Each structure stands twice: as structure tokens, then as C-alpha cells.
Amino acid sequence: MYGTEDALLKQAAFLNQQMAQARDLHDQLERFLTHTTWNASSATAFCTRARSLNTLLLALVGRCEEALHSLNRHVSEVKRVKGLISAAEAHVQQRVAAARALVERAQRAIRDLPADQVSLGDRLLIFPTAETHNLATVSVLEFEGKRVTTDSFLQATRIASLRQPQPGSLEWLELKQLFDSRGW
């Protein structure tokens, strides 16, 4: 599951702070080396070591910038994936809600009809049991002026009974892919 990007943004802020400190130290050392008037063999050795340290500080700033760019790219990718998950979750939930509504309407309509007007096959279809869940008939049901085939109704019962993942889970993307592949 994806949460907030807070931890990543805190890490980015920390990297920014470290980069700024390293850059400030580099600049201070550079100014010192440029303006030093000290002349002696010990001064030459000190300046050589200070220049080496300054080179390392500059390399550290470069690595911090690279890490910061990588972190920002990762935050963008997390946001993109969260958006995809959110869209998939909304799409699947809409389809499941529509399927559940169809199943409920069909069950209510059949339940309200007199027994002599509903065939045993339709009763088994609308109220499937473990043994008859995969019942294949070609009868056509009609609800609210729309024709609903048995296959469509069975498809709706399958959709309505799907286990839904936790909010924000990557499983929503897999479920949407399943819906798309089956034309749901």
C-alpha cells in the first residue's frame, strides 16, 4: 500500500540541508584559501590538505544533488502510481456497485413475481446455490426495460462477489487489469 510521501519529503529536506552545509563549508574554505597570506612550508602543506578537503566537499555536494534528484523522481513516481491506483480503485468500485445493483434488482424482481410466472431455471439463476452457480442457460431477463442475458447476469454476480483489496493497495491495478481483460 502506498501512504503519504512525508517520509520521502523529510529525507529530501534533510539532503537539502546537508548539501547547503557542505556548499557553505566549501565556499568558506575557498575564500580562506584565496585570501590567505600565510607563507611557510607548513602553510603550503595546510593549503594542499585544505584544497583536497574542498574537492571532497564539492564531490559531496554533487552526490547530494544526485540523491536529491533521485528522491524527487521517486516521489513523482509514487504520486503517479498512487494516481493510477486511485483511478483503478474508483473504476472497479463503480463496476462492482453497478453489478451489485443489477443483482439486487433482479433478485427483488423475481422474488416479487408469482411463482407460476418464474421458471425454475430463472429462480436457480437469480438465487444460485453452490451446485447451480455455473448454470448456463440462454434465457433473457428484463429489468427496467433492458434485456439482460443469463451470461450478463452471471457475470454481474461474479463481479458483485469479488473481494476488494485494501484502499490504496497495488492489487487495485491487478483487479482493473482483470476487469479490462474480461471486458467488464
Description of the structure:
The protein has about 180 residues and is mainly alpha-helical. The protein has one domain (about 5-180). The chain is about 70% helix and about 5% strand. It contains five helices and two strands. It has helices at about 5-35, 40-110, 120-125, 150-160, 170-180; strands spanning about 140-145, 145-150. The chain has a two-stranded antiparallel ribbon. β1 and β2 form a beta hairpin. α1 packs antiparallel against α2, α2 (about 40-110) crosses α4 and α2 crosses α5. It is rod-shaped, with a radius of gyration of 33 Å.
Describe the secondary-structure layout.
Elements: H1 6-35, H2 41-112, H3 120-126, E1 140-143, E2 146-149, H4 150-160, H5 171-182
Antiparallel strand pairs: 1-2
In short:
This protein is mainly α and 184 residues long. The chain has helices at 6-35, 41-112, 120-126, 150-160, 171-182, and strands at residues 140-143, 146-149.
